[in-house]
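ok trying again, last paste got cut off:
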Amino acid sequence: MSQANKSIQEKTNQLTKLVAWFDSDDFSIEEALDKYKTAEKLAAEIEKDLSTLKNEINIVKNKFDSEK
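nice, full thing came through this time. structure:
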């Protein structure tokens, strides 16, 4: 499944696993930069998804409010 098709929850779960890796016994300084970049990109995608969702909710809310 591509990143674009993952739900916010799936992306959040993936980010949680990445963050946990930094505290795990598997941590290695050689991999840290790549893992950090991946986590940073994932966090930005989640933020964008949430912003889009918020905008959609506001549109629906405004439409509902105008129909009252």
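cool. The first helix runs from residue 8 to 23. Helices lie at 8-23, 29-66.
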